[in-house]
Amino acid sequence: MMSTSDEIKLVFFNTCFSYGQAQEVVQHVDAAIGMTTTIGDEAARVFAAQFYSAIGFGLSVKKAFEQGKAALMLEGIPEEDTPELYVRDGLDPNELIIVKP
Questions:
Q1: Could you name the domain of life of the organism this protein comes from (predicted)?
Q2: Nearest to residue 38, comparing CAs of 19, 65, 57?
Q3: N or C end: fewer C-beta atoms under 10 angstroms in the chain?
Q4: What is the pTM of this model?
C-alpha cells in the first residue's frame, strides 16, 4: 500500500460538533469530515472503521464516506446523517484517492 502524495489530503474529526473545524480546515486540505451534532461511541467506531477500510482499498473519499454511512444503516445505528463531508472548492470527491492499493 502506498500513499498517492506526501501532502495531507484529508482530515477526519471523529468527535461531536466538529463540522466547524472541518469547514475551516478544508481551506488548507482537499477534504475533511466533521460531525454535525453529537455522535455515539459505537456510531463513531462503525463509521470510522468502514471509512478507513474503504480508503485503504483505494476507493475515493466520496465512496468511502458513503460506505461509512451505509455501515451505520446496516448496523441499525440511526446516526447516518451526523457525518458530513467537506471538499475544497473545485475538487471532485469522487476523484480524490488517498491510497493506491
A1: Bacteria
A2: 19
A3: N
A4: 0.91
